[in-house]
Amino acid sequence: MPNVAGFVTRKFHFHVLIELALVVALGLYLLAAQHQVVGDSFVFTVAGAGLMALVTHWTLNTLRDGLEVIVLRAARARH
Q1: How many domains does the chain have?
Q2: In which domain, by residue range, is 25 found?
Q3: Buried residues in 14-36 as b, exposed as e (16+ CB within 10 A)
């Protein structure tokens, strides 16, 4: 069990770092998009939509990993 808990915790920390990088990239995209009209540049709009979808997907996966860490810690506390 300690190996599993350690692996899950490391995976969660790695996913949090990736999450932060994606949020920063999305913030930079939004700063660049301030003066863009939606649909004005199709490539720019598609890139933004793709980035937002990726951030959403990664956030949900990171939350799942966080719940795994909580469950493993709760199970360890019971025993």
Answers
A1: 1
A2: 2-78
A3: ebeeebeebeeebeeeeeeeeee
